[in-house]
Write a structure and sequence with these properties.
By secondary structure, this protein is α/β, with parallel strands linked by helices. It folds into 2 domains: 30 residues; 252 residues, TIM Barrel, CATH 3.20.20. Helix 9 links the parallel strand 7 and strand 8. Helix 9 crosses helix 10. The radius of gyration is 22 Å and the shape is globular. 42% of the residues are buried. The N terminus is likely disordered.
């Protein structure tokens, strides 16, 4: 065999080896992670807490959104919030079992409004749940108020309930009093609220919707409150993804959501709470995919 023939055979062998390697890489890239994630390409440093308040949304987390879920993410299953939405422990426990089967390492939380509902959930949810969120928005439940002294008492009350059942208490307070947006100038100290709970998720979606300047001000204000109290924990802030097809008044497009998420990264925060609905799934996928490319 002359030199030209040997080079031709060598080239063919090299091409074949590269092709096999590419097939292996592509196959591995899309394979769900054994730890429960979907083998995502996600590179954003933020961990996500995905809200879900219906069987349809849970199924979307199990299917369409599966490629975007990593083991460090969490799920927040909502029932009995806002006022008038009936509480269903059956739904909460069924949804948690479905998610636990698909995502064995991810934290799962329950979420409800009103101290009566909170007590029922804390006592009745399965061992799949790490804790319960206390949704606190004046106008939704009789005990909710902008009176901060009473608010602190309400948070302390549900925290004691959670401790009695050996689960985490997570506050989910309205965010308008951060800057007095629509509250008649009333402002709250979110570090004080955090001091009553194991964790705090701040409903900052109204500020993300208002624009990047307002969102940055709100995040920085809460962070400054935490720093003043020398709290070791950090708050989690909410971004609501939606568009004209959703019923979410503070929903934002994927591009605005990405800007708000990037602002959290810039402030050194490790996670984001994401609210969405079935009408905005396409927008949510664009948000998650766009975060990958923006990182």
């Amino acid at each position: 065999m002359d030199a030209r023939v040997r080079r031709r055979y060598a080239l063919v062998a090299l091409v074949a080896a590269v092709a096999v390697a590419l097939v292996v890489v592509v196959a591995t890239y899309g394979t769900p992670s054994p730890s429960g994630g979907g083998g995502t390409t996600r590179t954003s440093p933020l961990a996500f807490t995905f809200a879900a308040n219906s069987s349809a949304e849970v199924q979307t987390l199990l299917t369409t959104l599966r490629p975007y879920v990593l083991p460090g993410d969490a799920f927040d299953l909502v029932s009995g919030s806002p006022e008038g939405v009936p509480l269903s422990l059956t739904n909460l426990n069924r949804w948690a079992a479905e998610l636990r089967s698909a995502y064995p390492s991810n934290a799962i939380y329950a979420h409800t409004a009103g101290v009566a509902n909170y007590a029922t959930v804390a006592a009745g949810v399965s061992s799949d749940f790490a804790g319960v969120l206390y949704d606190y928005e004046p106008g939704f439940e009789p005990e909710f108020t902008y009176n901060f002294t009473q608010t602190l008492s309400d948070f302390a009350n549900v925290s004691a309930i959670a401790r009695a059942h050996g689960i985490k208490s997570v506050g989910y307070p309205i965010g308008r009093p951060i800057l007095g947006n629509g509250t008649g100038g009333i402002r709250w100290d979110y570090a004080a609220l955090a001091g009553e709970m194991d964790q705090l998720v701040v409903q900052s979606q109204t500020y993300c919707h208002a624009g990047m300047s307002a969102f940055a001000d709100a995040v920085e204000t809460v962070q400054a409150q935490y720093a003043a109290e020398d709290l070791p924990a950090v708050p989690e802030f909410q971004v609501t993804i939606g568009n004209a097809t959703t019923s979410l008044p503070n929903g934002v497009t994927s591009s605005t959501g990405i800007a708000c998420a990037d602002a959290l990264v810039a402030r050194g925060l490790p996670s984001v709470y994401v609210w969405w609905d079935e009408g905005g799934v396409a927008e949510l996928v664009q948000f998650l995919a766009g975060l990958e490319s923006s990182s």
